[in-house]
Structures are given as structure tokens and as C-alpha cells.
Design goal:
About 90% of the residues lie in helices and about 0% in strands. With about 90 residues, it is mostly helical.
Length: about 90
Amino acid sequence: GYFHVLNDLERIGDHAENFYETGEDMLEKGLEFSVDAIEEINGMKEQVLNAFSLAKQAFIELDKMILTTLANIENDIDKTNKELKAI
């Protein structure tokens, strides 16, 4: 159980790093997000914060059922990230 929770925490960190790198790339290219994209990013931020909270809860409570929810949140974040990069 610990391994899965730690893996989820690592993935949350990976998402944060990906956002940072995307922002750096945009700054270098002089690009800005649209208002709609900013709203989507804020939604993703909330998902990441939720995932972190759930991962912490799963770790403390050793609740394997939460892992399924975390996997679904990760898939949603990945999908939105790909959509934003395609724009």
C-alpha cells in the first residue's frame, strides 16, 4: 500500500514539473494563455490539489479504495494537459 501511495505522490510532483516546464516554454516564446485556458488550468490545479489530499488520506488511512479515484484524477489531468498542449 505504501508503494502505491508514494507512487501517486511522485506523479503529482511530475504534474507540477510539467506545468512549470510548459510555462517556461511559453515565456520563452512570448505566448500567453487565453482566458478559457487559464480557467482550465485553474481546474487542473484544483484536481492536483485534490489528488494530493486524497493521496495523503490514502497513506494515513491505508485505504486502497482511494487509489482508484487517484488514478481517475490522474487520467483526467493528463487528458486536459494534452488538450491544452494541442491548442
